[in-house]
Amino acid sequence: MREIDVSKITEVVKKLVIDANYYIGKDVSDAIKKAVSEESSPTAKEILNIILDNHEISETEKMPICQDTGVAVFFIELGQEVHVTGGDFEESINEGVRQGYEEGYLRKSMVGDPVIERKNTGDNTPAIIHLTIVPGDSIKITVAPKGGGAENMSEVQMMKAADGIEGVKNFVIDRVRRSKGNPCPPVVVGVGIGGDFEKSAILAKKSLLRDIGQRSTDPVMAKVEVELLERINKLGIGPMGLGGKTTALDVFIEYIPCHIASMPVAVNINCHAARHKVIVI
Questions:
Q1: Over the chain, what is the mean pLDDT?
Q2: Distance in angstroms (rounded) separating the CA atoms of residues 268 and 204
Q3: Contact in structure between 174 and 203 (CB atoms under 8 Å)
């Protein structure tokens, strides 16, 4: 049994939330550069180049990529041979968020009461934590800060099995179409199929952790991803909703088994600042 003190977890989380908000992944930057070369719209090209300039500024000046530094969403794989010591595991995550958002000058966006007073918690906690117990003696921590504009364009439908894959495709495309420029395109579209109501949504969000261009391991779903990307980019929404061929950078699908009477399908949209960082301790 390996022991890991909560202070180590807090230290790692603090760094992760700052790095995720300062440094965009190379896969995202490369995809936007490719889009610039393929765009025919001058306005779309200009917007994409501005996004690339923003990536460079955020990295060199050590400042957030976007003013909306998001809800701190974590996907954590906790090895079953790990004994967490020195305090509360979940609180160690929240303390790392607290310190990182303060020291990194990241906007605090969480409100405590979501309906009546909506008073800011002041430190961007609590984090959203998805925990999985896995074999091994390490902890894999992935943070994916999620902005409100893109998150608000997400949706779950409890579809019928008879709707089939064409029904799924139509739902995904319609969701992007209705989103228009609200999620700050070019977007990354995550799709979760199966499980139940809440699991499909988690699958959709987890799919967004893939690198741009990383296809599904299922060859059938890989083809569907490519088809959806092509169809979405024919919608004409374009960067920031101002027209063009680059509405989405990629589409990712994850699926698991579900009940015979159900076919849950979730769409979770990420903006062009597709932020995620991972570390293993």
A1: 97
A2: 6
A3: no
Residue 175 to residue 45: CA distance in whole angstroms: 25
The 10s digit of each residue's pLDDT in 230-280 is 999 999 999 999 999 999 999 999 999 999 999 999 999 999 999 999 999
CA dist 176 and 242 (Å) reads 14
Cα→Cα distances 57→31, 60, 210, 226, 280, Å: 18, 5, 24, 32, 28
What is the share, in percent, of the chain residues with pLDDT greater than 70?
100
Copy the structure tokens of residue 152.
């608000």
pLDDT digits (tens, 9 = 90+) for 152-165: 999 999 999 999 99
- Alpha-carbon gap, residue 177 to 236, rounded angstroms: 9
- For the chain, count helices (H), then strands (E): 8, 10
Report d(CA 71, CA 93) in Å as an integer: 13
- Read off the pTM: 0.95
pLDDT at 33: 97
| Structure-block tokens of residue 276 | 């995620």
d(CA 234, CA 32): 17
Distance of alpha carbon 196 from alpha carbon 57, whole angstroms: 42
